[in-house]
Each structure stands twice: as C-alpha cells, then as structure tokens.
Amino acid sequence: MKITKIQPSHNFNAIQNIKKKLPKNNTNSSAKNSFSLEALAFLGKSNIKKPNYELNLSHDELIMRTSKDYLITKRYLDLYSEEYQNLDEGDKKALFHLVRAGNALNNIYMQLDNPNNLPFGEFLDNEIKKNNTDAQLTKFLFDAQKGVCSIDNNANHIELAKGVHELQGKGFYPEDLTKEEFQNILIQMLENGENEEVSKILNQRSVVERNGKNLKAIDYVEKFKDEFNFIADELEAAAKTSTNEDFNEYLTLQARALREADPVLDGYADKKWATLQNTPLEFTISRENYDDEMTGVVFENEKLKDLISKNNIIVTPKDSLGGRVGIVNQKGTQDILKIKKYLPLMAENMPLKERYEQTFSTEQDPKQTMVDVDIVSLSGMASAYRAGFFVAQNLPNSDKYSIQHLDGGRRNVYHRQIRTSTSPEALIKQQEKLDSLLNPKLHKFYNPEAHHWFVVGHENAHSLGPKDGKEALGKYKSIIEENKADMVSIAMLDVLVKAGLYTQQQKNEILVTFALDNILKAKPTLSQAHRVRSVMQCNYFQKEGAIKISKDGILDVDLDKMIPTAKKMLKEVIDVQLSRDFNKAQDFVLNNFKWGDELEKAAQNLSKTFRELNGCAQSPLANYLLGLNEI
C-alpha cells in the first residue's frame, strides 16, 4: 500500500448535499464541516476485503443523532485565527506538513480499533455514490466516532453495521480469538519455551496474528510501514522550515522512530518531546492503552499468571494511536505552569510514599513540562468521539521506554478548544444544570474554570504515586489510575491553598465543581475507565458523608469532609496499586461501582438539560491546509 499524496474524498460534497435535503432542524452549521478532514482517513484502502454490510441504525435514529439537539460540536482553529496569522512563515509551512502527518494516523488507528472499520468505510462510500441517504448520515457518525462501533453519552453501544460488534481485542488481536483460547494458546507456548514470542505478544506495540495453532506478534512499525514512512517524511519536511530548534530535533527523532521497529528510538523521541516548553507549534503522536481489553485477561487465569511471573514477562496492554497538531498558547501556558513549583510539595504529601519510587523528586526540579494548546487538528484515538472528547493528556505513560530506562520526564498538553464554551446557550444550560442538580446554597461555588484547575491537578497527579507494577491489575489498571489522579487533585487542595496556589474560594469552587461533574447521564460500562471512576467516587464520598444525593436527585456537598475523604480514598487506591493484585483491584472497583436510585434520579435530571448523545469536531484550518478550502 503506497501513500504518495492525500486526495479529498467525495464524501464532503456528498454530505453537504444530503444535509440540504434533511429536515430543517438537522441542518445545523456546527456540524456541517466535520466530514472534510475525516474523509482523508482511508488511505490506500483498495486492497482491503469488502464484505457485505447492512446499515444498523434506522433513518429516524440517524436523523436524531446528527441533529443539533443531540450532537456536541467543537470547532478548532480556522484560517483567520489570530493564532495562525501571527505565526512565522516557516512555522506556517511546517504546520502544513504536521497536519498531513497527523491525519495519516487515522488510517492506523482505524485498523487497530476494529478490522471492520476500513472496509465498512469503503462500503459507505460506495453506498453514498448510489445516493443512499442513510449511508451518508451513517458516514457522519462513522467519521465522528472514528469507527463502526462506539458508545454514546448515555452508555449505549452504537453499532453502525448489523452484526458488527465491539471486540475485546479490538484490532490488536484476531477477530475470532476468544479469551479462553488466548489464555490456552499462551499457556501452551510458554510450556513449549516460546517465552520471547509471548513477551512480544503481550507488549504494547504489537499487532497479534495467528500462526498455525499459535500466535505471533508484529511490531507496529512493521505492520504499518507505509503509513509510518509517509508520516516520517512529513515530519522531516516540517523540521526543515519550523523556527524552533528543539522542536525540529524532536521531529527528527520521532521520524526516525517511525522508520525502525525499536522501542529505544521511541524512548529518545519521547524524552525529547517531554522537554519541549517554549515552542510555537505542537505535534504529538499519543500512545495510550485504554482500549485493549484482551491483554489484561492473562491475569484472570491462575496457571497463566504463574507462568508469566515465573518467566519474568512484562504484560502491557496495547497502545492505541492518536495525533495532535496545534499552536501553543503562551498566556494559557503560563497560567498552567504555576503549579510546577508545587509538584515536589505534592510528592512529599503523597500517602505511603516510603513504599514506592515516583517520578517527581522532592528535592529536584520536576521533569515535567506543560503547555496550553490551540488545536488545529486531532486524529486517531485523540479525535474519536466516544462519549466525550480528550481535554488534556499527560504523556509518556509509565510503561514507556523513556520513563523506564532513560530517566525521561513527562509533558502535559491541554486542549483549549475542547474545554472552552462561552456561548449564551452554554451559559443557559449551565444554569439549568445547577437548578436541577445542585443545592441552591452551593451555586455560588460552581465555576467551569474550576474544572480546568482540577484537570491540571489530575494530569500532574499521573506522575505521582507508584511508577511500576500497575499492569498486574489487568483490566482495572486504568480505572484505578484515573481514580488515583482525581483523588490527588482533591486531596492536595489544602496543601496548595496554604502554599499560595489557590485561595479558599477557589478551593471551594474546585470541590463543588468536581462533585457536580461526577454526576453522569447513565451508568457507564466497565470499559469506560474515566466514567467508572466517577461513579466509584460518588458512592465512596456518599458513604463518607462528604456528599449527599437526595431522593429527588439533588446534590449537596459537605465542604469540610471532601478533602479528608479524598485522602482516605487516595491511600486505599495507592495500596491497591502497590499490591499488584488483580483480585484486590477487582474488589476495590466493584465494591464502589454501584448505581443506586439516587444516581439514577440525578442522571434523569441531568438528561433533561443535556440531551446530547454524540459529538463531532470541525477542523477548518486543517481542512484548508489539506487543500479542501474549508475555512
């Protein structure tokens, strides 16, 4: 599969035509541009198998899910934005290549997500050529959620093709591989002495295929060689015109890592990326392992778990890939950086700190950079709307080579266009949310900006706590880690108020905003780590008397009990991580993951105000740079 250039798909014009034919309430301007950038995801797909598919959603449901009342839309930078216009000409030229590189990651992500994604996308394209209205509407959702299967804001599984389901092993493993067969094959391979191959199968950067009665692993770089070479070419081209030497060095290191299957090269690229602080542009290839639900099942089989331990095999879930292209916002960055000098203080106040090593030293300057970024485009995992958008990321994760072997640091990147919304409609909805969910005496403490402050604490908290051993928690690893990050952000508030970062008023705003934002529209599935931990926290804080939800679904917050409760839960979470015990993690999650009548009533109240089920993004500047003339 050779990638020589990117061509606009016919999908964009087709979707404009179909929208003109739809009922008036569906022709919302906020959604109309979402196709153009996403239409480029399917590079060189002519050799993909073409099974027959049947659309799964009815016409009425498609109309509903793509209408303005049920669709969240985020708009990234456009051509006329001050941020873009103020760039040096060299950086503008570099941005063109970075957008092309980031967009090419869509093709890889789609294959890692579900083996049906690309053939189903081609099926939709062919149906659109036949003027199939429902195929055009389905393509809208398909592009927005980046795949044939997803989950919406009400925790409903959305399957766009009949008979195509979410896979436990995503596209990382053979489509027909069951958990039991996977476990048995690995046991047999280990008993036959195939330890090295099993290690490759259970690492984060491989796609697993059948090899007779066994399995074999193929490194991402080998599996997606054409795509990665294309991306590497674009990064090297960007490095020739970008005005920042540090950024150019990173692009060069990242390009090399994409051409050769060697985690050490990834490590050097990650280590350099994590030092970037004063660059005009942002480019990231994100690698995170929230999606893989197959690898962790090895800890559910006692015989296999013992063999893995005996052979010193490190088990790490597979990485999904995403891309981010943006322009660094200097003012927002300076505001976020205020927390950096307090990170050693936070490390010193972590519970059970004497029992583990953590990234931050209490005596040295933290190896932590952080930037606020105006988004030009997101791609792959970072752009897939699956019950929400990414607000920020803290990378690289603890399992990466730069953290494990190169003494590298981490970098936080915050997404301005995802978190900000100041429209009159948004303010009205905010007040309706408060009226339907929160005790009136606490309204004065709700502040959307406080959520951003909380997220800053959350992202930095990922670098606190135990560095190693969390993979042994299997499918509960991510839930536990996200729970930990939340609890650090809350537990440290008194410390940070005393140190001068926050005022007492700001502390109370964070506490109330955090408590209210934990209320969900529906009970999530266990695969939704970020949402499961919200339910866990609601139950834990209720049990401790820090919050109370009335039978009418109204939230009350005891401000004096919030921080002590967070400290207590944080200590329990750290203890679970240190145990490296799958069963202990399972008990902790399931004992707190309860959906009672109070949460259900609060969810009903929230649903009356926030009806949105799906989401999409507009990328007008990126579209323009890609030659689609969408501004």
Summarize the structure.
The protein is α+β, with helices and mostly antiparallel strands.
Helices, strands, pairings?
Elements (H helix, E strand, L loop, with lengths): L10 H11 L12 H5 L20 H7 L5 E5 L6 H4 L3 H25 L3 H13 L3 H13 L3 E3 L5 E3 L19 H13 L3 H7 L4 E6 L2 E6 H4 L1 H15 L5 H15 L3 H11 L7 E8 L13 H9 L9 E10 H7 L6 H6 L19 E13 L11 E4 L5 H5 L4 E6 H4 L4 H14 L10 H14 L15 H15 L1 H7 L4 H14 L11 H15 L3 E3 L5 E3 L1 H21 L2 H11 L4 H13 L4 E5 L1 H6 L6
Parallel strand pairs: 1-13, 8-10
Antiparallel strand pairs: 2-3, 4-5, 6-7, 7-8, 9-10, 11-12
Helix pairs in contact: 1-7, 3-7, 5-11, 6-7, 8-14, 11-12, 12-13, 19-27, 20-21, 20-23, 21-24, 21-25, 24-26
Low-confidence stretches: 1-21, 23-47
User: Helical residue percent?
Assistant: 40-55%
Lateral arrangement of strands in the main beta sheet: 6-7-8-10-9
Binned strand content: 5-15%
What's the total count of β strands?
13
Q: Report the biggest beta sheet as strand number plus sense, adding barrel if it closes.
A: 5 strands, mixed
Q: Tell me the overall shape.
A: globular
